[in-house]
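Hey all, quick one. A colleague (J.T.) asked me to put the zinc ion job into the tracker so the inputs and the structure tokens live in one place instead of scattered across chat threads. No bug as far as I know, just bookkeeping. Sequence used:
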Amino acid sequence: MIIQKTTLEEVLRNREKRMHAQQDLIQRYQRPILSCTMNIPGDVKRTPLIDFVFRQKMGEVRCEFGGEIIAEKRQCEVTGPEAFFVVDASPTDLKERAVTIESQSRVGRLLDLDVIDTDGTKRSRMQPRSCLVCGGPVTICSRSRAHGLAAVKSAAWDILTAYAEAQLADLAVDALKREAVLTPKPGLVDGNNNGAHRDMDLGLLLSSADSLRLYFQFCVDVGFREAPDISKLVNAGLEAEKTMLSRTGGVNTHKGAVYAMGLFLCGVAKYFKQGGDPFAHSAFFAAVQAEASAGERSSHGRIVQAKYLAGGAREEAMNGFPTARKGAAALTESQGDELYALLKILEGIRDTNLLYRGGMDALDYVQAQARRILAMDPERRKDALLEMDQECIRLNISPGGAADMLALALFIERTVPELI
Ligand SMILES: [Zn+2]
């Protein structure tokens, strides 16, 4: 996305367009409309960050009104994202609940949820909105120009970034948990068994995922900085590993996720702030990090990399996570079929965990099985995966790298669907 400024003319033209869209919906459905926009000070009204926040909040609106929503229309203008919901509720009730959504979080202050009655009149709120800078009544501050545009813009930016930090960290933890509970996964810990692992189970993975929330938040914060300092990311990653190990009693549950998810969170934050491409941003950060740690002690991945010239987590990152992107595309294509996404990841990944435990034979076996199962009828895939799980347990092999890429794919699908 190219971040551009909005002219007053565009704002006025769009206001008219919005009123037409509202009237159209009222005529068609004869119900009140909840008209949602962002209220962003300054002349930049649309950035990937603003779009993200809006999308998340619209998820909350959908949750709140659920089955009462009769129709929904969304549009993205240079003046900002917009959504209209036709709701089967009284305008008074609708306004009350809309004000609750606006008031229950700081970021709700940047949301305008207008209720338009069937006669075209707008329901106004009983209480005036608060000033972004001082918290007093906004009408008084704006009339007296108490703070100046720079201060108001900076206050709005702080609210947006604080929200995104917390929300992205939650979504990252959630992606790790969704990956963990997905069943059946060949050789991996899932809801049925511990796969080819003797030292971990599902409970440990879920608790380990929770231990990473603050680290993930920190990665977003680094990415929001003008010039992200990657050495900070590396140090935070080492600290996060220590926290994880103390939570799991020394079991290395999410080392790959600390690395991959951390880099991608930093890349997404840079994209949210400056535009460009989050995959290219994280690839760049991975390259900087690789250079900085060229002399570090060898890990499993690097020993195997030297032996088999396989990609491993680092190459995935330095190429902008092509396998995770492929998984995200599979999720979109299949309307969220997570097992299908896992198979699409397994069919092509050079998984160093497999190579380390079982050599090229293990990698060939898993890739060939994934291709075979993908060629089957979708209804038969689950049974085939159950069989493959038993075989992986017998061979003592586990595609841990694929699990990390699946978690990342789940995260990509939720956070940057516009780029899949
Ligand atoms: Zn004020």
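Adding what we noticed when we looked at it: Residues 131, 133-134, 136, 141, 146-147 surround zinc ion (CB under 6 Å). The chain has two domains: 8-127, 161-419.
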